[in-house]
Each structure stands twice: as C-alpha cells, then as structure tokens.
Amino acid sequence: MKRLWIVALLMLVLLAGCAQESAESSAGEAAPSDDAAQKQPVEIEFWHALGGTLGDGLNEIIADYNASQEKYKVVPVVIGSYNEIDEKLQAAYAGNNVPALVAGGSHDVFYAKGLVEFFEDYMPESYDMEDIVGGFMKAAVRDGKMAFGPAYGTSQVLYYNKAVLTEAGGSAGDLASWQSLTGLAGDIIGMDTNLNRIEYIWEPMWGPDNIADIVSSNGGKFISEDGLEVTINSPEWVEVLEAMRQWLHEDQIMRIHSGGQGWEYWYKTMDDWVYGKSLGYTGSPGDYVIALDAVKEAVDQGYKNEFAVTHQPGWKDNDPAPYFYSMMYFIPKNKGLTEDEKFGAADFVTFATNTENTARFSMATGYAAVRNSVLELPAYQSYLESNPDADAALRQIDEFAVPAFIDPTGGAITDALSEAVDKIQIENRPVQEALDAAKEKAQRELDKIN
Fold this sequence. Notes:
The chain is an alpha/beta fold. It has helices at residues 2-39, 52-68, 82-94, 107-112, 134-140, 162-167, 178-182, 185-188, 209-217, 235-250, 264-274, 288-301, 339-352, 355-365, 378-386, 392-399, 412-425, 431-449; strands spanning 42-48, 72-78, 101-103, 141-142, 145-146, 149-154, 157-161, 280-283, 307-310, 323-330, 402-403.
C-alpha cells in the first residue's frame, strides 16, 4: 500500500512538471505571436461612392498601393451615393467609429463643424503641393492650410466640330467669347455636313450649370459676400439669361434638349453635334471617351466632323470663369481614429494622386488630373497624340475655373435657380420675373439658416 502511494505521488510530480513545461512552452510561443501582430499592417478603412469606370480605376490604384508596401492596408467600403456617405458618416461620428479616409460627400460641411483633420498635418514629405493644379489647390485650402487632398475634378468644356469651323474660315480663337461664338451663326448655320446640315450654332446642356458658368464670367454670384442675400436676380444674371432666351427663342440659333428618361437629354445634345446638326455643345470631360468614339464612328459613316475640345468662352471681354467640381479626399477628425490610421490615410492619398496615378486615372475616365506634371509625363504625352485636347479640362481648371458654389441651404438656392432657368430656356418666360420669383423663394430658406 505504501509503495502504491509513493508511485502515485511520483506520477503527480511528473504531471505537474509536464504541465509547467507545457505552460512555459506556450508562453515562449506567445512572444513571436505578439511580434507578428505588431507587424500586421495598419488597416485604413476608406469610404467612397465611385462605381463603373471610376470605381475600377480606383480599385486598381488601391491594389497597387497595398502591394507596394507593408505598413498600411487600404480597405475600401463602397457606399451607394454621396448623400448616403453624409448620412452614414454623421452616425459614425456619433459612435466614434469613423473611417480613416473618405472620398466624396459634403467635405466642406464636415469641415465647418470642425470634423475634418488638416490633410497637411499628416501628408508625407513626398507630397508636392506646388505641383497641384491651381484650381484644385484653391479648393483644398481652408484657413491658410491644405485641409483636403484633391482626387480628380470636372469642369464643363466645349466640344466642337473643327472641320465645320475651319471650313467657315474660323478658328478656336472665335470661341473665346460667347459674343464671338454666336457671331459665327450667319456663316455656319446651314452648312452641309454630308448627311446633315448645321441647324444650331451651339447647344448648352439642360439645367442651370452652363448658365452659372457664363454668369460667373460676367461677375455674377449666387449670394452676397456676407452670405445674407441671394443674388440670382442681379443684373449680371439677367443680362446672361436674357441673351440666352433670345438665342434660343427669337434668333433660334441655339437649342436645349430637356426631359426624357435618365440621361436621354444629354445624349440627344451630344448626338446633334456628333451627327453634324450643331457646331458644338457644352459637356463634361467625362464625356470624352464616349464622344471621341462616337465621332470616329460618325466619320466612318460619312458625316463631316473633326473632334475638338476647348475651354469655355468668357462673357464679352471678360476671362472665362467656369465653376469646377473637385472630388476631395478627407480624413475625419474623431477620437475613434489612431494617429497611425491618419498618417496611413494621407500616405495612400499621396500614392493615389502622384503624377503617374493621377494621369492613369485621367486617361481611363476623362476627368481632370490634379497635377501639372502630368502634362510632362511621356505616357500622357503619347496619350494626347491619339486623344486630341484630352487635357482641356485640366488646363481650364488651372487657368480659369473657380471652385464650385456650395449651397449653404443644402440645395434650396440651386433648386430655385433651376426652376427659373427652365421657365426661361424652355417656356420663354420673362427673365426678370422668373429670377425675382426664384430669389424670393431661395431667400426664405437662406434667412432660416442665418
């Protein structure tokens, strides 16, 4: 009995030793696991709403960035729309669960609430601010510092039929002002384009945007400098819209396509130019790829057209001053984010908007690149050889364009203007009457927020 007790005691000692050895072994393996965890890349949650060609281009850049280094990993989250980004981001701020980076949405609204980090505080030394296209830099700076990182931009440009313009004895210089452009009507309307005839000297795109661009050149504003008065019925607006009303309804040298399903009006406007019924139209740089292919196909069918793009005209002797819209990257300001995440977000933006990548994105989508150095890039120069005037929007933004108006009412001013422009361009209603009614409607909404 005593021997059995001794054997049992020995077994307990052996088991205890094995347990201790096992624990020590486990503890020894834990240290490498901690080191491995420390070496895991910092995840950069990135919200955006880009789909289609834009989304594909962005996904390629994200994949290249993640493969290029091991410190950070960008994890994209696609949100349905910019409005949805705003809604989700508000909830994320409340829950201290914001993403490290956002593209799109109301960046200025969040900045005004103190909810955006200054991009300049986190960008690496390799980010060259001096190389950013002038218009984009103006749009990115707040309170003397770079608050946002420009992603890409758009500003509507002129697409025109160079073959018709040249045959009429004109040149791109004749498109420098709206007065000189419309002055070509007598020489160009009626010209044979082989399978059609020119019926209109120009076709603006439906809506208030083209009008606002022209008014901007004429010195008109949406609201007063102090932000208290809506000014869309000022003499500068009246002058431009009265001229437009006359060109559309009295002289009938211009045309507006409106209504229809979805983008139907847009493509009808483009088609009139493609198939030789108008000298040109005002459209988005995002049209570029589709428009170029359409003209090539029309020429193959026998239509007379030579693809060309240039910047928007000025009003009378004034320089052009069209608005441009810039997609901005921004880093939310929230205690839910670590400093590593913020630095990682800025590092990705630097990569995504370097010369090569902003050029690649521009060539794939038609939207304007954000760096001047793109114009010196051999690949982009080669692209321009087979894609004439593809840099028109970039040059316009750099030389002439001004940052887009941000409606402080959330859309009441622009909605009222849109209604007034429809009354004038489509219904041929008196200009001053339509604009006065729009101003009164918009003013009530502006007064509410002031």
